[in-house]
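The aim of this short unit is practical: by the end, you should be able to scan a pair of folded records and say something sensible about each. We start with the first protein, listed as its amino acid sequence and then its C-alpha cells.
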Amino acid sequence: MAAPITPQMRAALRHLRRADPRFAALMRTHGAPPLRRTRNSFRALAQSIISQQLSVKAAAVIYRRVCRLFTGSRFPSPQHMLQMPHVRLRAAGLSNNKAAFLHELARAFQSGRVKPRTLNQMADTEIAAQLVQLRGIGQWTVDMYLLFDLCRPNVLPVGDLGVRKGMQRWFGLRQLPEPERMRKLAAPWQPYCSAAAWYMWRVLQST
C-alpha cells in the first residue's frame, strides 16, 4: 500500500504540472515520488558511498554483503563499523577506497564531528560544505542524502548521469546537458526540483 502523499509533495506535483503539463502523464504512470525522511543519517551516507559509480543492482548486492558482516544482517552503528576490519569490508566487495571511506565516515559520526540532529537544522549548502570535507563524499553523495534521506524539496543532482540523460530526453537535446544548462532548464521546476529529478529517472524507464 502506497504511503500517503504529504502536503509538500502535493504542492510539488501541482507546481510541476503547471510548469510543464507533460508531467501529468508521468505522474499517472509512476505515481508520486516516494520521498520519505529516514532516521539513520550514518546508514544513508554510507549507502551512498557504497553506491558510487555502481549500477543500482550491483550496489544493492554489495550493501547486503556488508550488512551480513554484522549481527542480524543489519547495517551497523558507527561504533560497530569501526570495529569491522578493513580486510573484511574488502571481502564483501568494497573497493579499498570505499572501505576506508566508510571507516572515516564512522569516525566522524562516532566523534561527534558529524551530528545528525545538527544536519537536520542546516541549510542544504551548509550541509554540503560540512560533508564534502570527508573523504569519499562529494556533491553527488550529498545530493542523494539531501534528496532521499532529508527529503529536501529543491535538490537538482546535476552530477547524476541518470538525471542528465532524463533531461536530455525530456528536452530533446542532442547532447547530455552540462550543470549550468541543467539549472537553467530546471528553473521553472523550482522550488520543487527534487520531485522533478525523480521523474527524470522515470523518463528513462518510460521511453
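Turning to the second protein, read its sequence before its C-alpha cells, just as you did above.
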Amino acid sequence: MTTKSEKLYEQARKVIPGGVSSPVRAIKPYPFYTASAQGSILTDVDSNRYIDYCMGYGPLILGHAHPAVRNAVADQLEHGWLYGTPIEAEVKLASKITSLYPGIEMLRFVSTGTEATQSCLRAARGYTGKNKFLKIEGGFHGAHDAVLVKAGSGAATHGVPDSLGIPPDFTKHTLQVQYNDIDAVTEAVESNRDDLAAVIIEPVLGNV
C-alpha cells in the first residue's frame, strides 16, 4: 500500500509543477515518498522498504547514512555550513582527486551535473574556437538548453529541442549519433571537423 504517498502527490501537484521537482521522479501513477534510508534500503512514508539501486543517481557510493559520512557532516556543522569563500577542505579534496586520477590535472567544484557539463562545453568551445559538439542519443548531460535535444533524421543530425521553451537556435550546434555506432561517430567527427569543439558521452548510459 502507498496511500500516504498518493495523498502527498495530490498535495504536491497543487504547489509543484507536475508534482515533482525533477522529471526523473515523475513515476506513474505517482512516485513513492521516502521517509528514511539506511545503507542500501529506502523506506517510504507507508513503511514499505525498497532496495535502492540509484543511490542518489551516483554520489552515494557508500550507501545511505554511512556512519563515517554522517560523523564528518556533523563535525562540519559545528563550524558552519555555507561560507561563500574558499576553504581549506576544497584544496585538500582537489589534491586528493588529482593524485588518484592522473588524467585529471585540474578541477573545479560545482553544485550540479548541469553546471559541470555546461562549463565543460563552454571551456571546449572557448579553447578550440569551434561551436559544435557531438553527443550520444539518449545520453543525459543535465538540464541546460544545448543538451536537451532529440534525434532528427540520419546518422548524425542537428539537435531538435526536446522541450518547449528552447529556441531551435540554442541546439543548432548540437549533433547526435546513436549509441555504439562507431561508423556514425567517425562520419560525424570527420564531416564536422572544422567546427567540432567536443564529444560528450556518459561513461555509463542510463537511458539506453
